[in-house]
Design a protein that fits this description.
The chain has 7 helices and 11 strands. It has helices spanning about 20-30, 70, 100-105, 125-130, 135-140, 190-210, 285-305, and strands spanning about 15-20, 55-65, 80-85, 85-90, 95, 110-120, 150-155, 165-175, 180-185, 210-215, 270. The two termini are about 35 Å apart. A hairpin with a 2-residue loop joins strand 3 (about 80-85) and strand 4. The protein has about 325 residues and is an alpha+beta fold. A 5-stranded antiparallel beta sheet has the order 5-6-7-2-10. It has a domain at about 55-155 and about 190-215. It is elongated and about 75 Å long. The protein binds flavin-adenine dinucleotide (FAD).
Amino acid sequence: MKTLSGNSFTATAAAFVLATGGLEVPRLLLASNDRRPAGIGNESDFVGRCFMEHVNIGAGPAVFTRDRSELEPYMPTPRTVDMDGEQRDLSLQAVLLLAPELMQKRELRSCEVTFEFPFPPDDARLRSVYPSAAHGLDLLRAEGTEPHMVPTTRLLCEQEPNPASRVTLTGKKDALGMPELQLDWRITHDDRMSILRTVRFVAKQVGQQGLGRLQIDIGGFRNADPGRDDDIDFPVNTGSHHLGTARMSASPQQGVVDTDCKVHSVANLYIGGSAVFPTSGANTPTLTIVALALRLAEHLAAVVPGTAVAPAG
Ligand SMILES: Cc1cc2nc3c(=O)[nH]c(=O)nc-3n(C[C@H](O)[C@H](O)[C@H](O)COP(=O)(O)OP(=O)(O)OC[C@H]3O[C@@H](n4cnc5c(N)ncnc54)[C@H](O)[C@@H]3O)c2cc1C
């Protein structure tokens, strides 16, 4: 091992835990190729594959006809935030999760929906910040319904594990002589269809529950009802969650670590963190990461002589 200040050292231990994050775990495993040319743990060619993120998209403005006070029970985190020097009200950060039975019935991936940053309907900035809100405002007023506020809709979505979405090494080396990594992040057509079907479902519910209207607008993409073969290449952002590049599997043919987070093909190497997720869910990976770390600590205490888990508190 080396550090940037020029130190180098070796470490010996009864067991090792590699917990360097969803990008650096595959980088270190792939770069450790002096004895195993494909890299450590890569017998089934899964190291670095199935890279997943939480696809993060603005899905368009919602024009709400309900007053803020009626929605307060659904707003878990009332607070004000600084947005580019301006104090904006985040208090409409209502988080919705679809029921598991519904997702299963409609074959939707997991998704977290938030309504956030509401403007009053007559705020002068509204039509420039959420230009596509105008249609909903005009429509509701033509019906004789008065809008109360206009938040924007945001989705954080699961994507399917796809072996073609992957981290690999380049020929370039960093200052420590380690190969640099490159990421080929892929989002499948089915991932995008699931996002659109979810947005459509939420939009329909906003109308049916009498909350108002949701104008779907994903970076200018407004076709909420595409055919299966249509081009649905709308822009997306990331959720800063790097998942799946050393996936857990029951069989060594289908992943990198076993259910104890141990690398299938190495007796004393374990992996911690979101690299081991076989599927990604839609949000908050850290709770699962911590749960897995606690379970791994208990396992190591049981199988590695001389280790123990400190009592809580
Ligand atoms: C801005 C932001 C907001 C987020 N918000 C949330 C949230 O609200 N809820 C949530 O659940 N998750 C959130 N996340 C995601 C969450 O932080 C990550 O999913 C989680 O930290 C991943 O844990 P990990 O242990 O896999 O990796 P990391 O937390 O990335 O830990 C890896 C560690 O390894 C170190 N490391 C890497 N390479 C080496 C090396 N070669 N040698 C030595 N050390 C190395 C790194 O410095 C780092 O300390 C957020 C992430 C970001 C960036």
